[in-house]
């Protein structure tokens, strides 16, 4: 929980990870390129006081995550959104077993989402069924730009992708998080395009599609899709650190999202360990649209409370203490089975 000026905020960090990018886990030069790109984002968008040494950035471990999120980061609950990247890392980038062990030990604080890749065909579908049971999955993280053999990406509306979404629906997995954001070296820009979200959101109306990084740099494309598809949501990972380096750019992002989607379909994410939540929470609570940007309305405290935690809590049925809830005339804008 975060408190400021007599207001209390329930914080859900809706996009966190445990990764291992140390040299011994790098399968090839692309593993180094990937983590170096991450580190460039971290270094260039963070306040100087929040920049980690490079060696610490390669692997943080569970103890540090628990400290950074829950002891000093104000987070009440966090959701793992792993990326596998098996073509770049010997044992994968996201550390499934360590993250799941932490979740089992701290079920009140952590939710574990897993991943799938439709290019694995029937074998992958079998694995998805096993994973859904083992991890008690409510959601997943899809990485459409991930490489696999000669393939350098896939689309949500591919035939095999539909098979996986249909299976997920049968298994009760209804929160689909999709990386649709800035290009990460060496992945291909076009594989992150948001256009394929439109079709699956129309065809799977009982699912929620959380577009992580809100489609940046394709914000306009994303907003035009999301305003027509009420089960499409925006994740602020990567967008929110621009409060520090480009506050007017972030004001434009959040202003457009609030105009097209409203505050019920936007989720706070630190994208840990790209960034730590403490300074992001503090800065967002204090953030206001500059007065000269008159096309956007001022941010309200209620809007900030929804974005910082109440929206994701509703999507994942995370209990919120009564004193931290907001009175509502309408239910949260999430898909219901």
TrEMBL record:
Top-level taxon of origin: Bacteria
Domain Amidohydrolase-related: 12-318
SUPFAM superfamilies assigned: Metallo-dependent hydrolases
Alphabetized GO MF terms: hydrolase activity
Transmembrane segments: none
Alphabetical list of Gene3D superfamilies matching this protein: Metal-dependent hydrolases
InterPro entries named among the record's database cross-references: Amidohydro-rel, Metal_Hydrolase
PANTHER family xrefs: BLR3681 PROTEIN (PTHR42889)
Name of the featured protein: Amidohydrolase
Organism encoding this protein: Pseudonocardia halophobica
